Amino acid sequence: MDKPKTIIPIKPIAAGADGRREEMVSLYEAQPKIYPREVSGWFANWRWALVALTQLVFYGLPWLQWNGRPAMLFDLGARRFYLFDLVLYPQDFIYLTVLLIISAYGLFLFTAVAGRLWCGFACPQTVYTELFLWIERRWEGDRGRRMKLDRPGWSLDKLWRKGGKHASWLALSLWTGFTFVGYFTPIRVLWQEVLTLGMGPWELFWTGFYGLATYGNAGFMREQVCKYMCPYARFQSAMFDRDTLIISYDEKRGEPRGSRPRGTVAAERGLGDCISCTLCVQVCPTGIDIREGLQYECIGCAACIDVCDTVMDKMGSPRGLIRYATLNGMEAGWSRKQMWSRIARPRVLIYSSVLLLIVIAFVGSLYLRTPFKVDVVRDRGSLARIVDDGYIENVYRVQIMNATETEQRFTIFMDHLPQVQMQVQQEIIVGPAEARWVPVAVRVPPEVAQALGSGAQRVELVITRQRQGTDPDVAVHEKTTFMVPR
């Protein structure tokens, strides 16, 4: 069992001016260290499967080559973001916004259906805590040996085991920081810099910062991050209702608690199925007792379900004393089928519909996205000027950003201006994932300018990508103004 909490007593102090006795109460309480017991079972297998999947993606993606570069690369220096065949520019920030909205709605949907699934199975804090605990068990042993090892006093065995554990933690943390930086600097280049001790100051800083953050959060803070630092634990209840599947203790079946010999019927002794083994508390990574009801500290990892089912098997009782259930289902004694039938309720349907619409719009926008982007900037040195033969000239700077990894050719002309003359390259070549500024001078004869009238006239610059193979011509219309001086 865990060590009992250290209770700080209330200290009386001198009486106040009004004669009433005052007391000083400490707002802090010493928290015992939590030693989660290793558990196996259906939910534990799912958790480790997601640990393997998420870390395979995180550690492996920077090494995956695509078109001669990393498949995912955020090149901040060049202001290019590569995602497989996609080349994104800062002007594509809207896609990141939509992606965050999709993630938020997905989280709301999962929470409304089955509670903190994200926290218990895929959250980085949970994933790295599992990895660090696995390393800790390999070096220090099971729960009992770890508790014994942490008792006061040092020995050569304790120094060896503690040193090995922390060295392994630091190695994993620094590799995690190195991988994180590998999303911003090509990881093969970064690896060569590490081997030659040539890492830049920012690369070195972020590798150390992210590595030490992983080391501190997963190695020492663990449940403190989930209980006190993560805001999700505080507002999750707003997304719960009485038909949300949560980890529940069947009080009707489990009470009154009490130990009994294996193979005996609990009802014959006037007991419930719970034998007070406290294993559900010992396996909990946040140290709560699920038998006291749902608590905000519960991260939904379902470790208590796995261990309780194991105990029920040994005692010859049916599984499910602790299980995923709804409040309505527990109170009314519904079957699993009846509880699942309540999933399609208004809140879930609204979340699902909104999420589906956003995903469809997001995918459609990516599919219909033009293969290049254009910015038009007027020459600030001269908004408009009169040149030879009374012609009115405006000068623009056009930035063409190639959003593909093949060379593209472009032409530019002005729309909505009669008798316009343009001084611009007939064919503009922009290399793969390259951005190029092109000067464009636009002139109109004096009679046209007189017909237009003085001031700003709305016009359009049309930038057309020439046909390439089977790809059709693509044109972008960029609105701007043509100034006619008074």
UniProtKB/TrEMBL annotation:
Pfam families: Fer4_18, Fer4_5, FixG_C. Gene3D superfamilies: Alpha-helical ferredoxin, Immunoglobulins. Keywords: 4Fe-4S, Electron transport, Iron, Iron-sulfur, Membrane, Metal-binding, Transmembrane, Transmembrane helix, Transport. The keyword tRNA processing does not apply. InterPro entries: 4Fe4S_Fe-S-bd, 4Fe4S_Fe_S_CS, Cyt_c_oxidase_cbb3_FixG, Electron_Trans/Redox, FixG_C, Helical_ferredxn, Ig-like_fold. The chain crosses the membrane at residues 46-66, 93-114, 167-184, 204-221, 348-368. Signal peptide: none annotated. One of its GO terms (cellular component) is plasma membrane. SUPFAM superfamilies: 4Fe-4S ferredoxins. The keyword Iron-sulfur applies. Residues 265-293 form the 4Fe-4S ferredoxin-type domain. GO terms for molecular function: 4 iron, 4 sulfur cluster binding; metal ion binding. PANTHER family: FERREDOXIN-TYPE PROTEIN NAPH. This is Cytochrome c oxidase accessory protein CcoG. The gene is ccoG.
